Amino acid sequence: MAEQSDFLAEMGERSGDIALQCSEAAGYLSELNRRIGADCVQLAALQDTMERLAANQSESVAAAHELRATARRADDMLAQGHEGATLSLSEVSGLIEHVTSLEGDLRRFLEIIGTVGSISEELGAIARQTRLLGVNASIEAARGGEATMGFAVVADEIRRLAGQAGESAASVGEKLSQLDRDARRLIGGVESNIARGRGVNAHLDHLRGTMADMAALVGQFGDRSQAIVACTDAADADVTTLSAGLEQFGQSSRVNASGVDGARRQLEGLESLANDMLNATAHGGGRTRNSRYIALAEEGADEVQQLVQQALDRGLLSMEALFDRRYAPVAGTDPVQYHNGFVGFADTMLRPILDRRTGEDKAIIGCCLIDQNGFLPTHISRRSQPQRPGDHRWNLENARNRQIFMDSQTRRALDQDGDFFLFTYRQDLGEGRYRALRSVFVPLAWGGRRWGLYEVGYLI
Does the keyword field hold Acetylation (predicted)? Predict the structure, then answer.
């Protein structure tokens, strides 16, 4: 019988080890699943970004094609405009050349006017001399008497013609003077326009060069737009390929996450079976390495049971406060802590018991109280420190009092009937971190009502 008992105890211990390993593996898979889930969320966000990028890329491709078409139209229009402008500029340049060439003609015209003026002056001098000759002829005719009367008539006629010639020469000279003044004024204006024409010619030459540069720029713009179209088309194809790859990767990630979650559930099921064997062995009466901690848990639970009952009997604690389930969140706590009617009594009267019981064995990491909803009204002093604002991780490990925790094994211990439960489970340390513990859970009840559990957690 002794050998059989030892064998069963050994089997129970092995089951406990299996449960511990299953718990650690399930914890790893839970963290892996959490990371895959987080990656899936990021992947979904990336896919949304890719969809927006694909839409923007499609717009870029359309814009690039429109840009190329615009460049071609601009090139055609500039080519036509350049041809017309070149023709117009050539005509303007020819007109300016023609105007510029008038300068020599006008100067020759002034020289002719000057020559005609000289001839007019010579005619006037001849008329004066002729008139003087006519006067002399009249004097001589008068001296000759009857014999020179005919000569006198000729002399008079000569004087009259000389007078008319002089008047005509004077009139021609006056007209020529007026013509000379008008011609010089016209030449002055023409010379000014000629000077401007020469400046315009320089501007026209610059304009021709500018238009040639514009044509070259439009050509370059067309070439670059063609290159942009090629790049955007290639980028569009790459975006399509990348989007398809992300979609395939996303589907694969979801399948993997589902597979990991299934493996985790199977491990948790195996963990539960191993825990059932461990718990059954612990109730078999044989001595195991867990027996000491079971005894310490039962002693600690009895002490808490008696102290609370005495407080109820003396009126120091009411059943309403003991079973208060109105958890009021404490403002500014992270993780959230809660307050109810039992917290004050638990901190003052029960925490010292938890501290003392935790110090009874170095393997014990903590003794605590858990109500039916997973609420810890108090904890050992080392785990009940004031929270540090903004330090979530530190608070989760060092301010575990007044928080709500729940896992599958704790839930089983809360829901089942028995004198105690020995389970291996994963203690949630937050941010995907777990620690595999072996715990003894002893049910607590007052006034015939199940309150929760007294737990002793220890490392094997």
Answer: no
